[in-house]
Write a structure and sequence with these properties.
Strand content: 5-15%
Number of strands: 12
Radius of gyration: 24 Å
Order of helices and strands: HEHHHEHHEHHHEEHEHHEEEEEEHHHHH
Oligomer: single chain
Distance between the termini: 86 Å
Number of helices: 17
Structural class: alpha/beta
Length: 487
């Protein structure tokens, strides 16, 4: 976005909003939670990974039909039961069930979606059905639009703020191409993006954009794309300008303009900064695996930039790992917590889940959150409905007055120092399914990732908490009589 366009966007949003937002509370002065009567509520969905190929007999009908006819086609299928194991993505029955369960937890003021609409291996599967690139792109856009349509039908008139994930590309995983057809097609069907001046043109360029918060005055969502991922490639447009640098330049200008206009920021992204704790646990002899570029250059810049503008920051939301975790950014004090939502898809071995937040409607800051999971995951067969149940609430489970950067950092420390807290965190990590996150011999890979975002401090934390391997005592041997000597 050109700076002039950005300022016009901010002027448009500012004219409709008059309240100011205080800076995020710090650890020593956490504000009391407002009375329940004045709390708002919003829903975070993440990593649906919708699989339109679950019943392969439907593809021809789906390809020929407009997206508003897809639900009827799926509903008429005699086929798939709910997913019951890992390496399966969300089919129509699971999507319908998850949204119905979320409806019962509402009403919501707005919804955030933290990316990955498309199933794993979507592009190779699609190429097995059709060869024409234009038709492939059209089907890809229709699949993303179908998920958004299902959300809109489940929650009429509830604003949706969404970001694309690494799977959401017609070119392949981690291959989102700047100015790609999928961006224009999807952005046109996101009402908040379509309505905000400048947001749609930014989204069309790279999937990053700024929109006013749907309910809170003087607050904006700054939505980031996946270009900083260490796995990102641009094989479908190899000669194009580097989109990662373009996003960084856009973010720098955006935060400066937000400060100049007296506005505040909530981040929305698919891939959070920091270290991939699961990867580190599964490959303990390898160097720590960063979620962003291996050189840490974008992480370092992001940390410096957010620290510079920390008084503007209200919160952050992400997905990607499919697990229930978070990341904390801090300088002398913690200033930003990025909540990573457990996914609807059970692909990574977690139970399907969604997250409901309470928030302060005066500031937009989160107060608490509750995770709901499919309690009978793994035991369903054909015709068996999903059973959804509350798993836990942050405040009840961990004993904090509210969820914010300060409490998140304290929780990170407690998972290292306190075995009981560590076990609880490990229990919730995969939404109730077994995981290595709280277990002896592996918990530190996950706990150290919560607030140590770069490789050196992360590895130092792991080394400090990893069990020491005891070497067997060496027996002394010497000539003649004595210890270990032969008689």
């Amino acid at each position: 976005m050109r700076f002039a366009d950005l300022m016009r966007s901010l002027s448009w949003a500012l004219a409709a909003m008059t309240l100011s937002v205080p800076a995020q509370a710090q650890m020593d002065a956490a504000p009391a939670s407002p009375p329940a009567a004045v709390q708002g509520k919003f829903l975070q969905l993440s990593d649906i990974h919708f699989d339109p190929f679950a019943d392969p007999t439907l593809f021809a009908k789906l390809n020929d039909a407009p997206v508003d006819q897809w639900e009827a086609i799926f509903a008429a299928s005699a086929a798939p039961a709910l997913p019951s194991r890992s390496k399966q993505d969300t089919n129509y029955p699971l999507l319908k069930s998850a949204l119905a369960a979320a409806q019962s937890a509402g009403p919501f003021d707005y919804i955030v979606y933290t990316g990955d609409y498309l199933s794993h291996g979507f592009v190779p599967q699609l190429q097995g059905y059709i060869a024409d690139p234009a038709t492939q792109k059209a089907f890809t856009v229709k699949t993303v639009d179908f998920v958004n349509l299902m959300i809109a039908e489940a929650f009429p008139a509830v604003p949706l703020v969404a970001t694309l994930g690494n799977n959401d590309s017609a070119c392949g995983d981690y291959n989102l191409t700047p100015d790609a057809d999928i961006l224009a097609g999807v952005g046109d069907d996101l009402p908040l993006v379509h309505a905000a001046p400048g947001a749609e043109s930014d989204f069309d360029k790279g999937g990053y954009y700024l929109v006013p918060h749907p309910t809170v005055a003087n607050l904006d969502f700054v939505v980031l794309s996946v270009f900083w991922s260490r796995k990102y490639v641009n094989q479908c447009a190899p000669g194009a300008p580097d989109p990662a640098t373009a996003q960084l330049q856009w973010l720098t200008a955006t935060l400066a303009a937000e400060q100049a206009s007296g506005r505040h920021v909530t981040f929305l992204m698919h891939i959070p900064p920091g270290i991939d704790g699961y990867s580190a646990s599964s490959k303990p002899t390898d160097p720590p695996s960063p979620l962003w570029t291996a050189s840490d250059s974008y992480l370092s810049y992001f940390e410096s930039l957010t620290a510079q503008y920390k008084d503007l920051l209200v919160g952050g939301f992400a997905g990607h790992t499919h697990m229930d975790e978070f990341r904390v950014l801090a300088d002398s004090t913690p200033y930003l917590a990025i909540k990573m939502a457990p996914s609807v898809s059970p692909y990574n071995g977690n139970r399907p889940a969604f997250t409901v937040f309470s928030y302060d409607p005066a500031t937009g800051a989160a107060i608490d959150y509750t995770v709901t999971t499919q309690a009978n995951f793994g035991t369903t067969g054909p015709g068996t409905p999903a059973v959804w149940a509350k798993e836990y609430s942050f405040g009840e489970a961990y004993g904090f007055a509210r969820y914010d950067a300060a409490s998140a950092q304290q929780l990170a420390a407690k998972t290292i120092a306190d075995p009981a807290t560590r076990a609880l965190y490990g229990q919730y990590y995969a939404s109730g399914n077994p995981s290595p996150a709280g277990k002896p011999g592996s918990w530190f890979y996950f706990s150290c990732a919560l607030d140590r975002l770069s490789a050196t401090p992360y590895q130092g934390c792991v080394d400090a908490n990893k069990p020491r391997l005891r070497k067997p005592a060496r027996r002394l041997r010497q000539k003649g009589a004595g210890i270990g000597a032969n008689p």
